[in-house]
Write a structure and sequence with these properties.
This protein is mainly beta. The protein is built from 4 helices and 13 strands. It is globular and about 55 Å long. This is Metal-dependent hydrolase, endonuclease/exonuclease/phosphatase family.
Length: 271
């Protein structure tokens, strides 16, 4: 709605921070812990999170029978009425049809996506990538980088994180780095993030997980494996200028072998 009298406050450091709800979820290409590919089930879990930004890993695009040979990210974006940025890590030609066989990361957004680019990461074995996007807020912008790191070695993950950290240069400082890190937050290979980002789970004054009766894992934010979560490998890291009010692990309804992590952010206006 327009403001012809100019009474709306201009964006700036004196204005209230901008709330943004973010989800990160390793979807296991839509195959749940029951072994079934069920994209509507996954869409229901994501819709219940009521998020502004949804960062997904292990997403298939015309990958074959394991995911019914569909473009998962596109179907989810349509089901949730959200904008889409796609970042393949595996990208291979197919002989049987004109499409390519892809697998990687996706961002679904209620907010306008201004920039989107894909960055291959160093390492051997399964290819890995980082999907970097910039979304528009009311009076600010936020960089969001989604990734899925290697399982091969700590050294390889350290190299990948060093490459990702270089993506957040001086003009792009206000942002978040999210995804499946395949390492605990305190692992030595996460050292490239120290000083540039902070662990959102540790910053959040309000935290809730799915430890249930396993009280020795309570408030630790475990997201994997879904049935008995005790590893906090799905993480959100925030830069200066981004606050955290709440972090909680959702019930994934059996939609994946991971659980979704929801983080409520506050982005400083005018950044």
């Amino acid at each position: 709605m327009s403001d012809p009298l100019g009474t709306r406050p201009a964006p700036g450091p004196d204005q209230p921070p901008i709330p943004v709800r973010l989800v990160t979820f390793n979807t296991h290409h839509g195959v749940g812990d029951d072994g079934r590919h069920d994209l509507p089930r996954l869409a229901t879990v994501l819709a219940a999170a009521d998020a502004d930004l949804i960062c997904l890993q292990e997403v298939d695009k015309y990958y074959g029978g394991r995911s019914e040979d569909v473009d998962q990210a596109l179907l989810l974006s349509r089901a949730l009425d959200m904008q889409l940025a796609w970042g393949p890590a595996i990208d291979e030609p197919r002989r049987d049809r004109g499409t390519r066989r892809q697998y990687g990361n996706a961002l679904l957004s209620r907010l306008p996506i201004l920039v989107s680019d894909v960055h291959p990461l160093p390492g051997g074995g399964e290819p890995r990538s980082a999907l970097r996007t910039m979304v528009e807020l009311d009076g600010a912008a936020l960089w969001v980088t989604t990734t899925h790191l290697s399982t091969r070695s700590p050294q390889e993950r350290a190299e990948q994180l060093a490459a990702i950290a270089q993506l957040h240069t001086e003009p792009m400082q206000t942002g978040v780095l999210v995804g499946d890190f395949n390492a605990d937050p305190g692992a030595p290979e996460l050292a490239p993030l120290t000083g540039r980002f902070a662990d959102a789970w540790e910053l959040a004054p309000d935290r809730e997980d799915r430890a249930g009766w396993r009280f020795w894992h309570a408030r630790q934010g475990g997201t994997h494996p879904a049935r008995r979560p005790h590893r906090r490998i799905d993480q959100v890291w925030v830069s200066p200028g981004v606050g955290v009010t709440r972090a909680h692990v959702l019930d994934g309804a059996g939609a994946s072998d991971h659980l979704p992590l929801v983080v409520d952010l506050e982005v400083r206006s005018g950044v």
